[in-house]
Amino acid sequence: MTATEGKPPLNGRQRANLNALALATELRGRIKGEVRFDAGTRAIYAHDSSNYRQVPFGVVVPKDSEDVVAAIEVCRRHGAPVLPRGCGTSLSGETTNVAVIVDTSKYMRGILEVNPDEGYARVQPGVVRDQLSDMTEERYGQVFAPDTSTHEYATLGGMIGNNSCGVHSVMAGRTSDNIEELEILLYDGTRMKVGPTSQEELEQIIGEGGRKGDIYRSLKELRNRHADLIRERYPQIPRRVSGYNLDELLPEKGFNVARALVGSEGTLVTLLEAKVRLVHSPPHRSLLVLGYPSIYEAGDHVPEILEHGPIGLEGIDDELIRDMKLRGMHPKDIPMLPQGKGWLLAEFGGETADEAHRKAEEAIDALKESDDPPDMKLFESADEAQKMWGIREDGLGATAYVPMEDDHWPGWEDSAVHPEKVGDYLRDLRELYDRYDYKASLYGHFGDGCIHCRVDFDLKTAEGLKRWQEFMDEASDLVVSYGGSLSGEHGDGQQRASFLPKMYGEELMQVFREFKEIWDPDWKMNPGKVIDTNPMTEDLRFGTSYNPIEPDDVRFAYPEDNGSFAHATMRCVGAGKCRDIESGTMCPSYMVTLEEEHNTRGRARILHEMLRGDLIEDGFKSREVYDALDLCLSCKGCKGECPVNVDMATYKAEFLSRFFKGRLRPPEAYSMGLIMIHARLAQYVPWLANLVTHAPLIKDVIKHLGGLTTEREMPPFATQTFKGWFRDRAPRNVGAPPVVLFPDTFNNFLHPEPMKATVEVLEDAGYRVIVPQESLCCGRPLYDYGMLDTAEAFLKRLVKTLAPYVREGTKVVGVEPSCVAAFRDELPNLLPHDEDARRLTRNTLTLAEFLVNEANYEPPRLDREALVHGHCHQEAIMGMSSEQDLYERLGLDFEFLDSGCCGLAGSFGFEREHYDVSMKIGERRLLPAVRDADPDTLLIADGFSCKTQVEHATDRRALHTSQILKMALDHGESGPEGSYPERRYPDVLTGDGRRDLKTAAIVGGVLADVALAWGHGRRF
Ligand SMILES: Cc1cc2nc3c(=O)[nH]c(=O)nc-3n(C[C@H](O)[C@H](O)[C@H](O)COP(=O)(O)OP(=O)(O)OC[C@H]3O[C@@H](n4cnc5c(N)ncnc54)[C@H](O)[C@@H]3O)c2cc1C
Ligand code: SF4
Ligand code: SF4
Prior knowledge:
Elements: H1 12-30, E1 34-36, H2 39-44, E2 58-61, H3 65-78, E3 82-85, E4 100-103, E5 111-115, E6 120-123, H4 129-140, E7 142-143, H5 156-162, H6 169-172, E8 179-185, E9 191-194, H7 199-208, H8 210-233, H9 257-261, E10 270-277, E11 279-280, E12 284-292, H10 295-300, H11 302-306, E13 312-317, H12 318-326, E14 342-350, H13 353-368, E15 375-379, H14 382-393, H15 395-400, E16 415-416, H16 422-435, E17 443-445, E18 450-452, H17 462-481, H18 500-519, H19 565-569, H20 588-593, H21 600-612, H22 623-630, H23 637-641, H24 648-659, H25 667-671, H26 675-682, H27 686-694, H28 698-705, H29 722-727, E19 738-742, H30 745-750, H31 752-764, E20 768-770, H32 780-783, H33 788-807, E21 812-814, H34 817-830, H35 835-843, E22 844-846, H36 847-854, E23 865-869, H37 872-878, H38 881-890, E24 893-896, H39 915-924, H40 926-932, E25 938-941, H41 944-953, H42 961-971, H43 997-1015
Parallel strand pairs: 2-4, 3-4, 19-20, 19-21, 21-22, 23-24, 23-25
Antiparallel strand pairs: 1-2, 5-6, 6-10, 7-11, 8-9, 8-10, 12-14, 12-15, 13-14, 13-17, 16-18, 17-18
Helix pairs in contact: 1-3, 7-8, 8-18, 16-17, 21-22, 26-43, 27-28, 31-42, 33-35, 34-35, 34-37, 36-38
The chain binds flavin-adenine dinucleotide and iron/sulfur cluster (2 copies).
One iron/sulfur cluster (SF4) is lined by residues 586-589, 600, 603, 632-638, 648-649.
């Protein structure tokens, strides 16, 4: 018997983990940045935007180039493959691998040099395309021209890795055409700079010997041996992206080693630094949209439009517009398109608006003379043009999940032909889709001949996969027959690589292998991608073994996902918009941590993995999942802004409701989640509640027990609730049309003044205000802690109480945007089969929505400047258009801040563990903007949280829209005199109140329940 007999052999996974443990330990000893080999991180990084899934050994997040060098040295000693990665938005599987992922996107974001005179910038690989171009455009009128649809979050390392392109590649080419020099690191540790190489330099480098000399000698020999074949087989089209860029080594291209490495998809070297070309960006643009009878005819006219020198030329078809209509996208913008069923968007640039306009007009005049002129519309205002671009840019969001159709996937989404052949290629491609009974809309970068489409491939059954493979086989034959490229911008990855021989022939495939070996003789750089890959139907995200846990007793309805939580968690298409840190709301936690697990995508992926169950094994009790969701503010930013409406706030509530089943929640769940109960009790002795929550020492003990930060003051309870005030008031407008005012917990007990102002405004608009006296709450704070049983009970009570009103068609107005959002979003999602709930959803409005759309109210004028911060729930669910309309009617000179989430987000910012993140989010935009505002400027924020955050961190206080309207009623056109106008309009009036010992006992009960929670355990 040998020593190992009797023990089961290690399986592959255990072996990998064993190595991974040693590898991780050594990496931790060498890296300044982060080394993450935990299941949660591996789950999150097992995906990119493609159809593939491979679980990495772990992830290294290097601080700088030296960290990358050290990481690769350690990997080399362990024989571990390496996958460099940026934002991970690749669509062909090149950013998933069983490897150590080196993610440069967190720390290596340095713009090292900008030289506008010579037109270049030097950057680290994690620099985001727009981070560079926005800065250089503003300062020097120059940009890095290729602009992928993902330009707000794609990194230059990734763009170089994939040889990315975009709308303005028509003007300045692919990424490879815009690279001057690269600093690279080989798997064997060789570090060097590469770029164009004159004959003299080439001989000198070879003469100097060493590893660099060897590489250059091998490259030269390879080039010399195959130059004619390369010239013969490489398609002469603008978007040849498939295969390695061997053509860049040709003498006529200057033996450009940097450009030869572009598009190598991490399979050859790791990029440490890049010198990229900056080009002049025409400051003025005119957008001409052309409508044709079909997308094919639009394609036929591409060469004709190109003659007029557009800087961008895109195409969209009527299928895309149909999909958008089905999803309710761009309802006001689509009618602005010219007549037709296929459209071209031609952008013209100029140094002046006149010049851009003149170029567009010249094109129009010439086209009018043609035999079959298209219907034409010139969009000169930036706002209108942006609406048209919005239609084009939302292509993916519109086509991924089309109602009543199977899900659509990438696979054949960026093939390219010569621009002269677009029309015919589109016809043949459509015929092919029809033959396979596949549905796909056709759109893309027509000016460069690159066609996009997402297709309803069946990626889950053996038959579906076979069919997909057959289709890909035929589709590659088709594009090759057009002299085109399998990929026109996204790269080959694993998906297209097996078809490369059709495009280049076996001889060139062997040359590709030699090229790979020159750089990576150990085949450790992103193995199995681009060259000698696993079959395209392996390593799939779905595949025939995909069998997620499908919880059948989910709490929410998930109407967009046919009730499937598993489908909801796989909604994310990986586009990466939740990694945009410059604009919008999504995703506030990522904006300040830059951690993949703290963005919507990371959270969606870990939930998806949780249901797969092989990597995250403890399902809804998983600590990794809990941690990834912990910093989610439930702001609903993703629901509003994600192209496929990933709704993480709902998924989080669903998860937490199960995670805490049988466990005690953290104390903040009881102190803040049950605020509606505490507040009801506190109303009887507000003086005592305020005393204990504001008295030195006691307040800190209370906060400590409740899991809350001592950095924030608790909002005081009003000495008289709003409902109490309303009860004491004589009825007004008796006989007038009724409107119900919903007395939410926050405003009823803590901020009654905005509600009182709302009553006055509604009465001024001619309505009789009804305030239900029952104890009502939409349960808003409960969702954030997954207390869904209680939330549902509150909702049922709410529906029962308000049903008599809404059955009569009476509108319900909410003052707190997050409560209105709960009526519109959580309510139908939790009680989908309750007709009264549906009525309530339809009939509940914000004050502005009611005044503008129902009452057609013409408010008195208020001639003031104002800064407006929209509540994140409002932005996501209701939108702010009615508020905008109302402020215009008021005559305000207002600006909507692009401030995203305020950071307080209900109770999030009150929680001890979240205070720092909350403040960082607030300090990103909102708080500095408030501090910079002129003291005369009105600050408007309807959200209780937003107002509280402003009040805690600045010397200003924001007012509710109702208080602004009241200001106009009270003071006339110029409003109150002097600075800090809000000081005349407090939110809460505090006083002694009545001292009632009997009710003091009730407050004691409030404290006792917090203490009880504490006594049962600090955390679950
Ligand atoms: C919705 C959507 C729209 C898209 N639109 C476009 C488009 O209009 N045009 C377009 O061209 N592409 C588009 N793409 C594809 C993708 O966004 C681009 O290829 C993008 O440039 C990739 O950047 P990234 O930072 O996400 O790179 P990643 O996906 O992280 O990496 C891309 C490749 O580069 C390699 N890489 C990354 N960093 C390094 C490094 N430091 N050293 C060596 N190799 C490295 C990786 O290994 C990988 O092979 C789109 C994708 C999606 C999901
Ligand atoms: S969550 Fe939405 S925005 Fe983020 S990557 Fe996924 S699809 Fe894109
Ligand atoms: S709800 Fe807000 S914080 Fe949570 S994932 Fe969505 S955008 Fe991010």
